[in-house]
Structure formats: C-alpha cells, structure tokens
Amino acid sequence: MPVPLTNLDVRRWGDLVDEGTALVPRFAPEWDEHNASDPGITLLELLAWLVEQDLYRVNRVPERHRRKFVALLGFPPRAPRGARAAVAVTPVAGAPPFALPAGVALAASVAPGAPPLRFRTLAELRPAAARVAAVQTFDGRGHADVTAAWSEALAFDGWGREPVGFGSDDAARAPALLVGFDGPLPAGAPLSMWIRVIGGADCDAQRAAVRAEAEGAARACLPARPRRRCEPDEDAPAPAPDPWLTHHSLQTIWEQLDGGVWSPLPADDRTRALTLDGPVVLTPVAAGTPEQVGAVPTRLRWVRCRVAGGRPDQAPALLEVSVNAVEAEQASAVREAFTIAPDASAPAVAPAPGARVRLDLAFTPDGRLSRAGADGGDGSPEALVLDYAAPAGGRPGRLMCTLALVGRSSGAPLQRLHLPAAPVTGGAIVVWSLEPAGPVRWEPRDDLDSSGAGDDVFTLDAEAGLLRFGDGRRGRVPPADAPMLAAYDVTAGAHGNAPATATWSLAGADDDLDRALLQRDPLAAQAAIAAVRSAAGASGGAAAEDVLGAAGRAAEEQWAHERLVELAPEPGGTLDGLDPATVRTAAVPARAATALDVERLALAVPGTRVRRARAWAALDPQDPCRRAPGLLTVVIVPGWPADRPEPGDELLFAVRRFLRRRRTLGTRLEVTGPRYVELGVRAQVRLLGGRSADAVGALARAAIAAYLHPLDGGRAGHGWPFGRDVRRTEVLAALDAVDGVDHVLELELTGSDGAGGCGDVCVGPLSLPALTGVEVEAVA
Questions:
Q1: Can you say how many angstroms the Cα of residue 409 is from the centroid of all Cα atoms in its chain?
Q2: Quick one: what percent of the chain has pLDDT higher than 90?
C-alpha cells in the first residue's frame, strides 16, 4: 500500500513560543519578565512566526523535487504527442505518375469554419492508378468474398472463419488474404498499402515493448527466438534480426498472381504477420494479368498475403485494407522568414528551396541576416529551405527556412527564452547559438542538476515553449548578444485528433512547405489527386503530462500488486474468470511476487495474444495429484484454434522466457497449455407449443457449445473455469433456458472414458472440457 508522507515537524506557533519561553530561565536567568507586554517576548513571538513558516516549507515537496522523484522512478512526464492517421491518396484517372515525398503537409478539416489541422506524411508515397476492387480470404479449404464487409469498414477474418493448414508445407492449403485490383499494378515501383487490425492500434508501443524484451533477453543471454528440437538449450543466446517486426511463430509471404502462377513479391511488411496496424510496401514484378480467383467472379489482378509457416495466437480480424496509403502525423515545423540585408555578402553556395542544408548565418544588430549561405560546417544550424531570394539592386533578400530566432542571449545566468510557438511535438528540439567562435549546438536535458560549468545544455517546458539555461555552475551561460536559433515541430496535442468524417486536402495545408518539397505549385499537385481520406481518422494526440499524471502512472505500477489483489481478494484467488477488459486495464507489475502477478504478466507478453492465463501454486503439471512446493505452473490459452485453443511451442517459449526473467528467485516455473477432457452430450427436450423441432434443436446445441466453450463459456461468459467439473445440473439449466424448450426429458454426459451416465464429468485443475459431440432431440 502507499506510504503516507511523513510530517517532519508538527510544532506550531504556540508550541514554539512556549518552548522558547521555557528556555529563557536556562539561558538568561536575569530575565524575569515573561509577560506578553515584554519587548523580549514580542521578539520571541516574531521569531516563532518565522520558524513556523520554515517548518511549513520543510513539510512541502516543491514541484521541481516531485518532477525529479518521478523521473528517478522511471516515469518522467510525457511530452505532447501529435495524433496519427493512415491517409489514402487516390490519383485522378489518367494522371501521370507523381510522388509525394515524406514531410508533405496535408490539411484535415474537422468542422466548418474551424481552422484545419496540419498533418505531415512520414514516408514517401507514389500513388498508383490501381484501386482495390475486391477482398477475399482463403481458410485452407475454400475462398470467402469479404468485399462487402471491407467496403463498409466492418471487421472480417483475415485468414477466413475457420482457418486450417497452419504448419502445412503445401502452399495450396495455407490460409491467405487476397486483394484484387481493378487496374495494372505499377511494375517495378512501390505499391503502398495500409492494414488495420482489431487490437493492433498501439503499434508503436507494441513494437517498443517487443524491442525492449528482445534486447533484455539478449543482455540476459537468452534466445530471442524459439528453439527447435534440434537447437541447443534455451539458455544459449540466439538473437533474432528485427524481432519487433517478426512474429514469434507465424511467418507470412506476399505473392502476386501473374499468368496463373503465384510468385513472391518484394515486400516491406510492418504488420508483423497481420497482428499490428501498419504499412505494407510491395514492389510488383509485373503489371499482372486479370484472372478470376476464388469466390469473386470478376477478373482482377491479385496479390495475397499467405501463411508461410508457424501458427497464430489468434486469427486476425481486419478493419481496413487501403491502397496508396501513408501514415501522417499531426505536426508542423516552425519556420521563419528572415530578411537579408541589401549589403550582405554573397554566399559561396546559395540555399536551394526544398533542400535540407547546414546554413552559414550571421545577424546584424537589427535582426537581419548579414550572411546567409548553404555551406555551413558541422555544428551549424540545419534546416529545410522553403524559399530564397538573394538581395539585388539595393533591395533586401529573403530566406524562409525551418528555423526560428528565439531571441538574443542577455549573458545573464538562469535566463529564459520563450519559443514563438508551442507545444513542442514530443519535446524534441535543437537549439544553436551563433557565437564569435562559431555556432554551438545545445543539448536538451531533463534538468541541469548534474551538468558542469562548461556544458552546453538547457531544459525545455514543451507545453509552454520555455527554454531555461544554466547559471555558469550547472550549465554554461550563452554569451551576451548571441542569436539563439531553434528547430522544432509544434502540435495541437489532444486537439489534433480528427474523426473519420474529416475532409482532407493537399492545397492550403502548408503551401510554402509543399511548394518546396514538391517543386511545383500545390494547386497543380492537388489537381492530380481525386480524393484524400482516412478510414479511421486521426488518434493518439495528447497534451503534455503534468507531474501529478506522471506520479499517478508511477503509483499504478508501484502498487500493481495491490491493485490485482483488489480484483481478486479471496485467498488463492485468480484473475482468470474475471472481466478480461477490467483485468487488462490493471497495471502490469514489474516483478512476479504473487500468482496474480504471474497471471497478469502472462497476459502482457510483448508480441503475443494470450486470451487466458491461470497460475497454480505447488502443482506439478506432470503429476497434478502430488504437491510440489516451490513450483508455479501457469496454463495459458491463446485464441486459436477457436474450438480447442492450444498454444504452440513458440508461444510457450515466449511466455516462459518473459516470466522467468521476472519470477521470484528460487521459484520454479512451468508454462503449459490446457489439457482437454473430451465430453459428449446427449439430451432430449420437450418443445413448447408451436415450435419447430429442428430450430429448437439447433439452438440447444449452440447453447451447450457456447456454455462449455473454453474462451467464452461459463456463467460469466469469460471461459469455462479451469478445474471446474461439468455438472449435470448446470447443463440442465443451460438447456432449460433455451428459447422454445419447455423442460428437459433426458440428459446424458459422456466423459473421456466413453461411458455415459447421469453423473458429473470430472475436470482436472489444468483441464478444460472439449465437446466431441452434442445430440439434442426435441419432441413435441
């Protein structure tokens, strides 16, 4: 539980006066007048008042100390974040090919009359003329046309409803996602797609978590990939390349159909086998030939994502497959138009619009440029040039670039400079000072406590746009009159989130920037674009976090054990069976001190999709009837296969590795999958008047299957509890609740031994029931 803040001194003014008066005879025995009218007592009361103020301040924790405390705990306040969106650009039919370089500005209009939000693309996009005309899936047995669901932005199964063939060497039986295009594919040119997956929205956080776990495993000399039977023991290091883009088990391959043959495609797939939202950039080897494939009667040009090996933790549910899509961030670079003095020296290399260069700059006392060249050396300010006009004929010149003149240094210690615009996106900023010896680049720090007298450092308040410099002891003081330049981006934070109904456009977003990057007028570029849209809108934008918010995050993690105990307070309780949404909102503990911690950690292994986790203390999975002190057994249940989900070796390895690095020392840990007790149900029910026997029988069979399901069964609908016997009375109640059933005439439960009867079916602690058959006869 939280430790209460101690009160360092509880004395008040009256206590201090009494204490001081009591000490007078000891230190000044000749002072015998202690009445309130005595001038000495008045001075004593004044001193007590001053001391009381000091005691009040001693018991307070200043904001600076709170910020330092949460940073030491590993929870510094988060900087402002810009919203992100996947934006699809549809070119005009017949328009010549064109490219949108990374950084191009797009505008999202959320409401009429409101100023548009500025976004910028994070990768280059070359819109292709081909459009997605159909989407279908192949589950290993047959194709299913999901074009209607895709066109209405409804979820559909990425590998089909009941995929089979995982782990098969036969490519013809492997599940696949097929995308059909209505026109020739851009042979030899990139084709950008965006895939959105249910549960894969926070892709950056997931990739960072997978990366951190893989790097931690490598530091601990543990393998980053699951071992095969022929590989050495799991304590031998075997790091995998790019683990945050590689699924721990499932491998996929992109292919193109051309001339009736599926051929591999060069692909940069960042969806991690369709488990994360992300881009897929394909490079078609040919334009493709129109062919009729699967359940879609139209002849189209097809590409597919096929399972090449392994197995999923859960079959993916897709929400979006967009072509000509690129990720965009709600942020824009701060820029300033500087005036070049008419008598400025001519630069050896003139700045060229659209180029990112190191600038050689010098300012006059009135703020104009006396030198503006693109031949600056290392350490010079770096910026994107948006416009440049050299001075001529006594007229001043002009330089517009992504730099801002923050001000001039006063030369005083602890000086503050305000940025011309804020908040600063991600707290990322670069500051230069133009000094007589040359430009100096300053580095941002969270604080200056450990800085030396000669360190070129500063601190940033990203929300307020405030720069703070040192005092000469902790951080160097910028020299007097030195121009201070800054390069950074600004964002609207939480106000930059845009709905899917927002109207997007290129022209008018940031014409100066787009003109420099596109090397043509933005209106001409807009004329080649038929539509710009975002199927999901922009999300993820947030304002800067204050210290209280950071302290709250720290408290949630530090008290994660207590929060889990609050969810399952009974002795020997478990998180399994509780509302999964509630459990997953609880903070993940850093270490596993209890069985509840182990269960929560098993649900949060980076890169995996574990639906259920149940921890058993002192239980040996090889001999459940024998008590095994010091052993903790964890049973995990993924989401696939749907009827009898079982984890593969790779998933067991990933969870085991994650938990072993966080277990209590001395604890033996075993991770296993569930055992299934085969169960058959045969029943006879009496119909209500006027009901169909076939319809009621089908409802009854579905009700039994749902009630005993390992993922969605049980009374609460969170999965059949581990170790809970299948009781005859409960099955009777489930049948009796079926619409159209008057009462149950007969019920027989058949266990794994094949003997049926009127009793219950025993289910062990590590086991779940698995239906082998349900027979329901409905009689009038």
A1: 40
A2: 74
